[in-house]
Amino acid sequence: MSFPDGFAHPGILRRIAAMCYETLLLSGVLAVSFILPHVLLAGFAHRAAPAMALWAHLFLVMLVYFVGFWSHGGQTLAMKTWRIRLVTRGGRAIRPAQALLRYLLCWPSLALGGIGMAWALVDRDGQFLHDRIAGTRLITD
User: Fold this and answer.
1) Is residue 47 included in any domain, yes or no?
2) What is the predicted pLDDT for the residue at 5?
3) Could you tell me the residue range of the domain that residue 106 belongs to?
4) Any idea which of 3-12, 20-29, 52-61 has the lowest mean pLDDT?
């Protein structure tokens, strides 16, 4: 879909498909950077890390993954495959602070029953709520 700003915006089904693919790719990243270290540590220390430490590690691994990719090129691995790019409202590359804000806003958007995703169904530009608030948007690459 093309808007007066000249950018083509990916449809909701394309974005959901990219998110499903992202989940598949991210499971591999998490296996190496999250599960493996904790299994090795538990084997040597003979005890598991506290639950809060596991959640914090999971949160930080995904933060580094998403903020890193969004800040450097505007695309994660799945977004490259589905030819979707994250940009500012003006179409420029996003700053690391914007990427961090978007990442932090994605959590409540998903945790509240996906309300931030459903927002795209009523938004005039079809944007997710966290993109609207963070000043970012997804365009077709």
Assistant:
1) yes
2) 64
3) 12-140
4) 3-12
Q: How many domains does one find in the chain?
A: 1
How far is it, in rounded angstroms, from Cα 90 to Cα 78? 23
Q: SS3 for 120?
A: helix
Helix ranges (H only) for the chain are 12-30, 36-45, 51-71, 77-81, 96-111, 115-118, 129-134
Report phi then psi at 54, rounded to 5: -65, -45
Single-letter residue type at 45: A
Phi then psi dihedrals of residue 29, to 5 deg: -60, -45
| Residue 110: inside a domain | yes
Mean pLDDT score, 40-63:
86
Task: Tell me the HSE value of 30 on the side-chain side, using a 13 A CA sphere.
Answer: 16
Classify residue 34 as left (phi > 0), alpha (psi -120 to 50) or beta.
alpha
Distance CA 95, CA 31 (A): 28
Give domain status of residue 1, yes or no: no
- At 48, which amino acid appears? A
In a domain, 26, yes or no: yes
What tens digit of pLDDT does each residue of 69-106 get? 999 999 999 999 999 999 999 999 999 999 999 999 99
Mean pLDDT of the 105-117 span? 91
